[in-house]
Amino acid sequence: MFDLIVRNANLPDGRQGIDIGLAGGKITAIEKSLPVSAGQEIDATGRLVSPPLCDPHFHMDATLSLGLPRMNTSGTLLEGIALWGELRPLLTKEALVERALRYCDLAVSQGLLFIRSHVDTSDPRLVTAEALVEVRERVAPYITLQLVAFPQDGYYRAADGETSLQRALDMGLDIVGGIPHFERTMDEGRRSLEALCRIAADRGLPVDIHCDETDDPLSRHIETLTAETVRFGLQGRVAGSHLTSMHSMDNYYVSKLIPLMAEAEINVIANPLINIMLQGRHDTYPKRRGMTRVPELMQAGLNVSFGQDCTMDPWYSMGSGDMLEVGHMAIHVAQMGGIEDKKKIFDALTVNSAKTMGLEGYGLEVGCNADLIILQAADVIEALRLKPTRLAVIKSGKIISKSAPRIGELFLDGRPASIDPGRDYVPAG
Could you tell me which PANTHER family the record lists for this protein (predicted)? Predict the structure, then answer.
């Protein structure tokens, strides 16, 4: 009956000692002690088994380019944008493909099998789009890669920005992007959102906007985005990424704004690693955290997910392809340290992000795609604390990555011979 059975698994919803049967690329059974065997079996030994991790906000055209052509010495967003402008004319399709494929190898090992990448369309050569369309096809057997046509220098601000974005969509990019706060004026930012939502409606595409990635509390393009979403009937198909200006906005204004966002069914994508690194740069003390109002947005019923944004590129010299690192940072920045809070954070890395990306067949129920990861942790709380090893990564019912568990050997008189951080250090309660 089964191609593969994962036995003795703990599930994100708290069920323990569960067997998961996989056949024909689907999950076909989830129950205790399946009384049959399979061609291949894995004993999860009471470890957490989860759907794969998702990254709904990334820049794969820039990844692994750290140091080219120089380092970002100030560490600021604006120098990162300027540095990318220096690198962009030097980009070749071959180099872009090679870096992207290397990153995808890393992503697989981290159990990250669903990625939405913004693709800079500001260079009329569109070498970035050409390269990532090729990468999308090459990684399709193991990674679902969505591509956003992203006018990095502004839809109106960049020379040929309007025509380049349309050409990129004609090349097969999946989603309409924008950056209204980087246009020359607030009004051009407003008009860009109207134009971009119209393009999406005409083409039947989703929208994902870098929206108000600034400390300026008067940057209120999210208000326009919600209005245009409703105007063009795009509810549920629009994502507002970053939204860091909300961190600095007046509370009364936000009390009006969040219900409008909920009405428009805006998907919110915060990027904790990058937001905490780049925002508040003009502050002395106290310094603003910068990340958008995640707890309040979740409480209002909006679909909130988290993106990694960058790994070793002009904006961020860190990064490891590990979405649990993103969730770990989110807990700290949002001060969401409670048990239920952490469950919501884990959902933001998995099921919420899958909803943002419109993924079909995603999840851990009978009938879902046979895509799973086994982590060296007992539950989602411990997974966020430990950022544990991915013991196995399964795609369409086949193991595509394995890692040995992290075990520390000790040579101490009277002490244990080894330590398993996923078993030996769990909450006393």
Answer: CYTOSINE DEAMINASE (PTHR32027:SF0)
Q: How far apart are CA 264 and CA 282, in angstroms?
A: 32
Residues 20 and 63 in one domain: no
Q: How far apart are CA 55 and CA 115, in angstroms?
A: 5
Residue 188: what pLDDT? 98
Q: What pTM was computed for the model?
A: 0.98
Same domain, 201 and 165: yes
Q: What pLDDT shows up at residue 427?
A: 86
Same domain, 134 and 9: no
Task: Kindly state whether residues 36 and 73 are assigned to the same domain.
Answer: no
Q: Compute the Cα dihedral for 10, 11, 12, 14 and give only its sign.
A: negative
DSSP state of 309: B
In a domain, 405, yes or no: yes
Given the residues 98, 188, 194, 213, the one annotated as active site: 213
Count of all residues that appear for the chain in the document: 429
CA–CA separation, 67 vs 120, rounded Å? 19
Catalogue the long-range contacts made by 26-29 (C-beta closer than 8 Å, 24 or more residues apart).
26/361, 26/367, 26/368, 26/369, 26/370, 26/397, 27/364, 27/365, 27/366, 27/367, 27/368, 27/369, 27/370, 28/1, 28/2, 28/366, 29/1, 29/2, 29/366
pLDDT at 186 over 90: yes
101 burial level (CB within 10 Å; 0-12, 13-18, 19+): middle
Task: Tell me the DSSP string of 97-156.
Answer: HHHHHHHHHHHHHTTEEEEEEEEE--STT-HHHHHHHHHHHHHTTT-EEEEEEE-TT-TT
- 129 & 74 share domain: yes
Average pLDDT over residues 148-157: 97
User: 282 — phi, psi (to 5°)?
Assistant: -95, 0
What confidence tens digit (pLDDT) does each residue in 82-124 have?
Answer: 999 999 999 999 999 999 999 999 999 999 999 999 999 999 9
Q: Is residue 426 part of a domain?
A: no
Same domain, residue pair 248 and 157: yes
